[in-house]
Design a protein that fits this description.
By secondary structure, the chain is α/β, with parallel strands linked by helices. It is 55% helix and 13% strand. The N and C termini lie far apart (57 Å).
Length: 297
């Protein structure tokens, strides 16, 4: 049977990229992937995708190229230079960067790609590993309406809430705001957990009732078991949230917005990382509150 769906190249098969690319394969897309770790390439092939030996090889025949890498330097590394996407993708290709990077990096990439006849969307996501696996991510997009319309079926296979937020860089700006809210929310939950436990209250019962009231949140629902079980296996690493807090504080300074609580939480995330917990899930902000409260870690 001939596949009328666009051919997709996927660059970056990490905690998020692997399940997301697999959801596209399940939706019937032809996906060729490249990443640095061989076992991730093997996983893609086992799921029905095609493993490529380089960025150039992955993007050569693609209609759509999707990147999902940790930060701005990695986006620049795979996009630019003689071995990069812009050099090897065909004119007319749609490049969708789903990484969380600085808004300016997205704006610069769109400009550089335009010279090559390549269209770009910034489309960072929220929802973490669970959201990626369940295909219920929130996708915030920056770019042209026509390109968004073309990409929408792809986004619908990956997420539940898909919104064009404005021109290039807008998706990244909304993502930065998302990360600000999530970090402050996790910190508040962590403080409540330590307060409850030190007061001798049954934590499970307390979180159940808090989750049903105004204090309830997606963060509390998603991270409840992390708090209860002190299970900090990463769905979203502290290292990455540290990077995102840098993005939001820098961007806020640029536009003249004050983030007093965000600045404090950014420092708490930085201190957690300095204590050696950068590889843990961001719910490990609980460990930082425990250290400050003189409790077990």
């Amino acid at each position: 049977m001939s596949n009328q769906l666009p051919k997709i190249a996927w660059i970056g098969l990490g905690i998020m990229g692997s399940p997301m690319s697999e959801n596209l394969i399940k939706a019937g897309y032809d996906v060729t992937g490249f990443t640095l770790e061989q076992e991730k390439l093997d996983r893609l092939a086992a799921a029905g995708g095609t493993a490529a030996g380089s960025v150039a090889e992955a993007v050569r025949d693609a209609d759509v190229v999707i990147t999902m890498v940790p930060a701005s330097p990695q986006v620049e590394a795979v996009a630019y230079g003689p071995d990069g996407i812009l050099e090897h993708a065909r004119p007319g290709t749609l490049l969708i960067d789903m990484s969380s990077i600085t808004p300016q990096t997205s704006i610069d990439l769109a400009k550089a790609a335009r010279d090559k006849g390549i269209r770009v969307l910034d489309a960072p996501v929220s929802g973490g590993e669970a959201g990626a696996v369940e295909a219920v991510l929130s996708v915030m997009v920056g770019g042209e309406q026509a390109d968004f319309d073309a990409a929408e079926p792809i986004f619908e296979a990956l997420g539940r809430t898909v919104v064009l937020c404005g021109p290039h860089g807008s998706g990244q700006t909304v993502k930065a705001a998302n990360q600000l809210i999530v970090a402050v929310n996790i910190q508040a939950c962590a403080e409540a957990v330590v307060f409850l436990e030190k007061s001798g209250v049954d934590l499970k019962a307390a979180l159940d009732v808090l989750g049903g009231g105004l204090a309830g949140s997606t963060v509390l629902t998603r991270k409840r078991d992390n708090f209860l079980n002190r299970d900090f296996k990463p769905g979203f690493r502290v290292d990455l949230h540290h990077k995102d807090m840098g993005i939001v504080t820098d961007a806020a300074r640029d536009v003249g917005a004050a983030l007093p609580v965000g600045a404090v939480v950014a420092q708490l995330v930085a201190s957690l990382r300095a204590q050696g917990d950068g590889g843990l899930d961001h719910s490990a902000l609980l460990r930082a509150v425990e250290r400050l409260s003189g409790t077990r870690v």
